[in-house]
């Protein structure tokens, strides 16, 4: 098993006043030659957006974009419908930019900040028809068991959102002292594991809130929760 350690304190940061961003990988004005991507995972931004603020209309193409609100409420509008759609904490949004799309993302509340993850995954299909979807996921369904949020559009896995890539995004909330073994979908994949909150060990490596580890060249690995912990798994092909 190979692994890369990504400490929360070593992420790129930006403070635009209305937006406070933490960049796991090179993005915007932050560049680190050893943090450009993890396989097909290109972006994992941990953003705090002030009330009533957000990203104005801008374009995307040939990227799978996943948004996970952790606190607060977001609203989204794109060129497919031109209608504002709210995305609340507990929901997940997927947008396949494909051949090209324009969209806006704003904090849906005027006086409360929102904290969200935005994830970009390089697709395995170019210039696909743009598509949008979102779904609510109950925290009760990930108590000490894996909850799949996003999977491949080519895979018949029910109750998950779909993207154009042999990838899987999932969460688990582990009780203190629990052991969990993650099984990879393919030997060609790797897993980027981020600790949303809590403390865990992976292969004798201690990780705390917002620390991450990239694991590859293995078909499984085990996690031990030192405290009650919320975990995010992003499994992607390492060659794409």
TrEMBL record:
Q: What is this protein called?
A: Pirin family protein
User: Where's the Quercetin 2,3-dioxygenase C-terminal cupin domain?
Assistant: 150-236
Where the record annotates domain Pirin N-terminal, the positions are 13-121
One Pfam family per UniProt = Pirin
Cross-referenced Gene3D superfamilies: Jelly Rolls
Family statement drawn from the similarity comment of this UniProt entry: Belongs to the pirin family.
Q: Which InterPro entries match?
A: Pirin, Pirin_N_dom, Quercetinase_C, RmlC-like_jellyroll, RmlC_Cupin_sf
């Amino acid at each position: 098993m190979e692994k890369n350690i990504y400490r929360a304190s070593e992420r790129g940061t930006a403070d635009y006043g209305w937006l406070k961003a933490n960049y796991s990988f090179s993005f915007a004005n932050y560049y680190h030659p050893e943090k450009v991507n993890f396989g097909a995972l290109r972006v994992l931004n941990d953003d705090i957006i002030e009330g009533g603020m957000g990203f104005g209309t801008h374009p995307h193409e040939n990227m799978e974009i996943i948004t996970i609100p952790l606190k607060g409420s977001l609203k989204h509008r794109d060129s497919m419908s031109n209608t504002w759609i709210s995305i609340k904490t507990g929901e997940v949004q997927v947008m396949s930019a494909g051949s090209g799309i324009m969209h806006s993302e704003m904090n849906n509340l005027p006086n409360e900040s929102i904290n969200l993850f935005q994830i970009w995954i390089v697709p395995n299909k170019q210039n696909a028809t743009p598509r949008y979807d979102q779904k609510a996921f109950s925290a009760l369904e990930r108590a000490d068991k894996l909850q799949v949020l996003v999977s491949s559009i080519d895979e018949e896995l029910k109750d998950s959102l779909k993207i154009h890539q042999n990838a899987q995004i999932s969460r688990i909330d582990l009780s203190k002292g629990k052991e969990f073994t993650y099984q990879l979908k393919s030997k060609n994949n790797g897993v980027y594991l981020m600790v949303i909150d809590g403390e865990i060990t992976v292969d004798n490596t201690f990780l705390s809130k917002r620390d991450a580890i990239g694991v590859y060249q293995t078909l499984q690995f085990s996690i031990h929760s030192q405290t009650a912990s919320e975990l995010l798994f992003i499994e992607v092909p390492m060659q794409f």
